[in-house]
Amino acid sequence: MTEATRAGFIALIGEPNAGKSTLLNRMVGAKVSIVTHKVQTTRARIRGVAMEGQAQLVFVDTPGLFRPRRRLDRAMVAAAWSGASDADIVVLLVEAHRGITEGVGAILDGLAERTGGAPVVLAINKIDRVKSDVLLGLTKDLNDRFAFEETFMISAEKGHGVDALRQWLAGKVPEGPWLYPEDQLADAPMRQIAAEITREKLTLRLHQELPYQMTVETENWEEQKDGSARIEQLIYVIRDGHKGIVLGAKGETIKAVGKAAREELAEFLGRKVHLFLQVKVRPGWLEDSERYSEMGLDFKDGNE
């Protein structure tokens, strides 16, 4: 008898920078979600698809859970909890070296009522940064606070423990037909993934200057006769001074960003890419409902 197929949605939740995007990319085996050292870089819930035996694991990468201050923050936190409540299994990532921070405590307090009864597993990440006795103590403290179905010790960056977690998840998702074609990595539209890749390069390049006050949209995507893709993107900033920062002296910053984004897009798509970037000042984009839809967020979720 052939083994039954299984499929399910798995939400990765945790504080900003806990390693959710790195784990998603490691599980899927490709770069689907942007990874930077800035907090709050994941805005939309990108779904990555991983195959493990006869099981299809559909990962929902949620924005980090934190105390929201602005409309965009509130919409991101609402998206994170909504991703958790819709999932078949929830994986909470906690950083080993940071332990139970105030933010982790707040997540633990909200877990029972906000996960819709789905099983929750604990993944203690970045285990290479602490000694084993610290890990054991943290595991006990976390399990005393919440009844986790299972605990995994992992390093998403180095790959330790990730296979064991993926195999466990594969055995737990419901029996049923696969939800996506076997060769599909992500269900976010390619235009959105392309915009995320450019935004990652901007965030890495600009450091602390204005990463959360800009957004990138793929305005035009044309397939060329030679098999290449021509992609035009708009970078929105909220004031004139920011435009100068994004462009850089003699346009050097935007050139470097464009080159890095084009190379990664070409690798991701497996073909040549012509990328054109334009910077526009749009003072009110943080209050513009259309921009939220583009990011896969609900504008109304940002209301006080």
Automatic annotation (TrEMBL):
Domain KH type-2: 206-283
GO cellular component terms attached to this protein's record: cytosol; plasma membrane
Residues the entry annotates as binding GTP: 14-21, 61-65, 125-128
Residue ranges annotated for the Era-type G domain, each copy included: 6-175
Positions of region (G1): 14-21
Primary localization class, coarse: cytoplasm
Compartment(s) of residence: Cytoplasm; Cell membrane
Region annotation (G5) ranges: 154-156
Region ranges (G4): 125-128
Membrane topology: Peripheral membrane protein
Cell membrane as UniProt keyword: yes
GO process annotations (BP): ribosomal small subunit assembly
Region (G3): 61-64
The entry's keywords: Cell membrane, Cytoplasm, GTP-binding, Membrane, Nucleotide-binding, Ribosome biogenesis, RNA-binding, rRNA-binding
Region (G2): 40-44
One annotated GO molecular function: ribosomal small subunit binding
InterPro entries reported in the protein's UniProt record: G_ERA_dom (IPR030388), GTP-bd (IPR006073), GTPase_Era-like (IPR005662), KH_dom-like_a/b (IPR015946), KH_dom_type_2 (IPR004044), KH_sf_prok-type (IPR009019), P-loop_NTPase (IPR027417), Small_GTP-bd (IPR005225)
Superkingdom classification of source: Bacteria
Gene3D superfamilies assigned to the protein according to its UniProt record, in alphabetical order: 3.30.300.20, P-loop containing nucleotide triphosphate hydrolases
Functional note: An essential GTPase that binds both GDP and GTP, with rapid nucleotide exchange. Plays a role in 16S rRNA processing and 30S ribosomal subunit biogenesis and possibly also in cell cycle regulation and energy metabolism.
SUBUNIT field: Monomer.
Family label: Belongs to the TRAFAC class TrmE-Era-EngA-EngB-Septin-like GTPase superfamily. Era GTPase family.
Protein name: GTPase Era
Species per Swiss-Prot/TrEMBL record: Litoreibacter arenae DSM 19593
Gene from which the chain derives: era
